[in-house]
Specification:
Elements lengths: L1 H14 L7 H10 L3 E5 L1 H16 L4 E3 L13 E5 L6 H12 L3 E6 L5 H5 L2 E4 L6 H6 L4 H22 L3 H5 L7
Parallel strand pairs: 1-2, 1-3, 3-4, 4-5
Helix pairs in contact: 1-7, 3-7
Length: about 180
């Protein structure tokens, strides 16, 4: 376990050691959106949902594409799609539909030249290093997913500052299950 932990932490640190290109535009798109939608499949979807929760806790109007209570996407909205490969068919279809209605698409992917990247208005490329140890210590999309989670959590801090939010104000919107 220690070997895998060290490997993952080092790879994620290397991936995020400098500010990713388009981060400022990404933050501005979120701040300028009337509604924010998120989408992803599998573990990428879980990363997207984790970010959605934080956005809701900041008081933003946020939805996850595919849930039964999700409204339609309209012009002036932003849809954030998380996909390691950028080739997941439902993610590509979502991006194409969203752009047709006049909303903006932000893709977080390891492959900016993918079909999803091409269908997006803005791409945040989260591209972890690849080596032979990855297959053994962090299989499949683990490094992308972990780096993307940390990247999005760091965006939360930026948004908090720009929106005048604090941990206390967010806590007031934190779900309380009884």
């Amino acid at each position: 376990m220690k070997e895998s932990t060290d490997y993952i932490i080092k790879a994620v640190h290397e991936t995020l050691s400098e500010t990713l290109e388009n981060t400022d535009k990404f933050v501005d798109m979120i701040l300028g959106a009337r509604k924010i939608f998120l989408y992803g499949v599998g573990r990428s979807g879980l990363i997207a949902k984790a970010f959605a929760i934080r956005l809701v806790q900041m008081g933003l109007e946020v939805f996850f594409v595919g849930e039964t209570v999700t409204p339609i996407v309209e012009e002036g909205n932003v849809v954030i799609i998380v996909s390691y490969t950028g080739e997941t068919m439902s993610a590509i279809q979502t991006a194409n539909i969203v752009r047709r209605v006049g909303a903006k698409v932000v893709a977080l992917t390891a492959h900016s030249n993918s079909k999803l990247g091409t269908a997006s208005n803005l791409v945040i490329e989260v591209h972890p290093p690849k080596d032979e140890e990855k297959k053994r210590l962090a299989p499949l999309g683990t490094l992308f997913e972990d780096a993307t989670l940390i990247y999005l959590d760091s965006i939360v801090a930026v948004l908090m500052e720009k929106l005048g939010q604090s941990e206390g104000s967010m806590r007031k919107r934190h779900a309380i299950w009884v």
